[in-house]
Design brief:
The protein is an alpha/beta fold. It has one domain. It has 10 helices and 9 strands. The strands form 2 sheets. Strands 4-3-1-6-7-9-8 form a 7-stranded mixed beta sheet, with helices on both faces. Strands 2-5 form a two-stranded antiparallel sheet. A hairpin with a 3-residue loop joins strand 3 and strand 4. Helix 2 packs across helix 3. The model has no long low-confidence stretch (mean pLDDT 95).
Length: 246
């Protein structure tokens, strides 16, 4: 089983890291190509494309301009949003990190698809960003490449199953592009009957952590997820669309 998470907008390149053996992103060439293209955009254009403030536009313009010389950090330890608060990678044991490397994937607008220990440079480039006159969004720029690599990971894993813990924006880069042989199980998190975005994001990270800590490889065992008071709601779930509520 392969679980899939979205990236985060906020990054952490300051916290101490455990001893790790990093890996190289499999779409490193594509990331360099995108960063080079973005480096030619003005701060104003970046602000318009990404719907960010002038200050954030300047930060990211500088990042793209100096991309080749920027520091690198394993992706699972570089992302620092709500999802990654739930994942809390810095407190995982070595064996759990090794399991995550084999069973967790992180979607990315710039890097396409990352393994937890793949080195990444700081950036902000969301999958829904409009990108050039010939493609509407980055999802179109990436085409089938992300889905093809994910499908290969699932085939190597041998389970034939993918646990979708990604946001709709990022899953759009994969949806309808996977072969029919891959079973996808999506998860919906609720507080009572309400969907609360902040809580749902953290819950996605919590579920990924629960899978990693318990070394879960069988999708059916994921129904046992019970962190932070969540429980599987059989009445509101289907075979491939699960609901957890608290």
């Amino acid at each position: 089983m392969i679980a899939v998470l979205s990236p985060a907008k906020t990054l952490d390149y300051e916290s101490p890291l455990p001893a790790l053996t990093p890996t190289t992103p499999r779409f490193a060439t594509e990331a360099t190509t995108l960063a080079a293209a973005a480096s030619h955009l003005t701060q104003k254009k970046l602000s318009e494309l990404m719907h960010i403030s002038p200050a954030l536009a300047k930060l990211n313009a500088d990042r793209f301009r100096n991309f080749a010389d920027a520091p690198e950090r394993p992706a699972m330890f570089a992302f620092d949003g709500d999802v990654y608060t739930g994942l809390d990678a810095r407190t995982l044991e070595d064996e759990a990190i090794a399991f995550a490397q084999d069973h967790l994937r992180l979607l990315s607008g710039l890097y396409g698809l990352l393994r937890p220990l793949d080195l990444m440079r700081p950036y902000r480039l969301e999958m829904g960003t409009r990108w050039g006159p010939r493609v509407k969004k980055l999802t179109d720029w990436w085409g089938d490449r992300i889905a093809t690599l994910l499908a290969a990971d699932v085939a190597e894993d041998g389970s034939g199953v993918m646990l979708n813990l990604a946001s709709q924006e990022y899953w759009a880069a994969v949806a309808a592009r996977l072969p029919g042989s891959v079973r996808v199980v999506a998860v919906d998190f609720r507080d009572g009957d309400r969907f609360v975005s902040f809580h749902a994001k953290k819950a996605r990270g919590l579920m990924a952590r629960w899978m990693i800590e318990h070394r879960i490889t069988d999708i059916d065992a994921m129904r046992g997820f019970d962190s932070a008071g969540y429980a599987f709601d059989a009445n509101e779930s289907t075979d491939d669309q699960w609901r957890f509520a608290r």
